User: Fold these one by one.
Assistant:
Number 1:
Amino acid sequence: MSDDTPDSLIPYDEIVQEALRAVVGRVLGEIQHGGGELPGNHHFYITFKTGAAGVSIPTHLRERFPDEMTIVLQNKFWDLEVDEHGFSVGLSFNQIPAKLVIPFAAITAFVDPAVDFGLQFQAKVPDMAPEGHDDAENDSQDQGATAAASEDGSNVVTVDFGRKK
């Protein structure tokens, strides 16, 4: 492609983002239909914009994570419900149970470190300057695991449709 390529009248970037978010929905839907049990060593790190439309989290979590939050679905989660727009799940934060409702449009990253798979998304919220925040502390037996993708980027799909000027 060259610098004089005309702007597309077809929103390819939005179509691809929607399709990739559908992958997250399908994976979570299969977990829900399988009784809420994760197969093998699979576990998920899901990062989302806390200020996105439709996100519902307890006030103390929104205050602690005003921009973005990462949750872990591994050992201690319950009531996973998935629909075409997003999902809800019960998690414990410092031994306090909470229900989170997260639209797929709010998700910015989905990682399954067990198989070195990850997706990153463009945020669908108004641009905000990112603020620093603490790491998620929802209860997990695997506190030493990280959500970082492998250094060589294998099996990580990043979609960035920035245009050259």
Number 2:
Amino acid sequence: MFVNTNFPKARRYWHNGAFHDWSEGGLHPAMHALHYGSCIFEGIRAYGTAKGPAVFRLPEHNDRFLLSADAARMACPHTKDQIADLIKRTVRENGLDSCYIRPLLFYSYGNLGLVPKACPVELFICAWEWGAYLGENAARGVNTLIVPERRIHHTQFNMSAKLGGVYVQSMIAGLDARRGGFDEAVFLNMEGRVAEGPGQNVFIVKGRKLVTNGRTESALEGITRTSILELGRDLGYETEVGPIAKEDLFGADEAFYCGTAVEIIPIVTVTDGSDPAGPRTKRVIGSGKPGPVVQGLIQAFQDAVHGRAPRYEKWLTHVGK
């Protein structure tokens, strides 16, 4: 029996051609993904609009989902259009307005050698109501820790893919940050520059310029990140994609995380714990409070995803009835 305590309003999920009650489930302990993290996934959000729920940038998410499947050498049993239809059906099946959506493609039960030669590829799609990823107080700004472990390097795997097993590193960093009294972690890359958060991109603000990095800095080029670059330009800011040194982050006027789950969250302090043998130094970003640039971007983003900005209607896929 599975309860939905941590998955508000989740009632049904899709798997193997049918919807199932949330409390229903039975996966074999020898399924390949459970042992090796041999899965890929997407994080997607739908938002309430005047026309009903709409999925944010669904085609782009599904393109990345299939790219991730290819990177994991998985033959997805569904087309892009079929996955899009199943995602919309899952939102409708749960009667959700604003929600988080998680498609998961994985190697299932067949064999337990590292090479899943006898394991079928299966798809789950879940959806539930998920509010502020870092808590309701995160809008006031979060306190972050630069962890000593360096982000997996961009030469080691396709940084455009969301591979389940890779996120074990993210999980450990997130746990370590929280156990140390911080809200979230920041990774450096092997070169010692800022890479990303455990599941978020990082932006800094310097005057009228928004700066973020890209895949050659060992960061996922997120879909929310791409959207913010466009929003920023439309709001009259200069945008730049390039390396971010630790000193650039420490000296920024403002800084923030962005991602599907976290949306846009201001960073107000950064503690440098990158040297495990050295002292931890806390730096306050800008005024130590959410600044006007990030606050303006948050409002513009919310207007876009909720269908209040006709210019960005192109980003919305309406779920319908």
Number 3:
Amino acid sequence: MASTEDIPAQVRWEIATKAANSQSVVYDMLVRQIIGDKVDEIWKVIMSEGGKEAKVMAESLGLPAKNAKEIEDAFGIISTILMGPGFESEILEANEDRMIVRLTGCPMLNAHRRVGYGPTSGTPFHCQEFCQSSVQSLNPRYVIRYSKRMCTGDTYCEYAIELEK
């Protein structure tokens, strides 16, 4: 008899995150049709709370977050665990106080494309809420700031994780 244990963990994880991302996109689409852009207020709370779990996850995995480099590493691992493979990035600047990252692949944007429902006007806001909450959870001395976003039409996302000024 076949069992889920017969399926490699990597494959199970990819299937689960792909399905969860697609469900999230469809949920947004349907709720947006019913209540309009008020759904953005709901997503703000959901994404903020989700981001707050980053510290718990990082601690349970033994991931440090004392400086910008460690925060970026932990944030990348946590985001990949939650959203699955598909993140593609390069480091443009790296030091203890500041990391600048260019992201050219995103599993959530991929889910939007699969479902055929382009990112809504709220998508960048939802992403920012999750990312900001995650980074501040990992280390409240740091913030994340986006200068480019694929979900608004840019060819890549670009962000800085840096000491809050």
Number 4:
Amino acid sequence: MTQQQTPASTTIDPELLSAARQAFANAYAPYSAFQVGAALRGISGRIYSGANVENASYGLGRCAEQSAIQAMASAGERGFTALVVYTEASPPASPCGACRQILFEFSPEASVVCVNAQGESVTGSVADFLPHGFRLEHG
């Protein structure tokens, strides 16, 4: 795996970071108190963001990465070039397994930066985060 933890000086797309931070502030996490914000840049260049949204029936909650993908797909885009995931965790939290598979469906080669409030980051491609991801070939 080429996924790597990088120092605070890593260059992060400032627009994506800002959008991920804003989404983080809007997270609905009354049960875990663990807020997550995500922002991705669609192939068109447009930014889509999402926050985690919990539910009393835990399995019905949505991760921030899933929320961002749903916004992108709902707008008609089918791929993205970069994703920023923002949390306050140290080290920075990365997408869960389910989110990794959902991201892989759309853009296995897209870059991923997981970053926290201290500027620590973990970087790699979607495929780095999910080696040997499952994909059906479709026309």
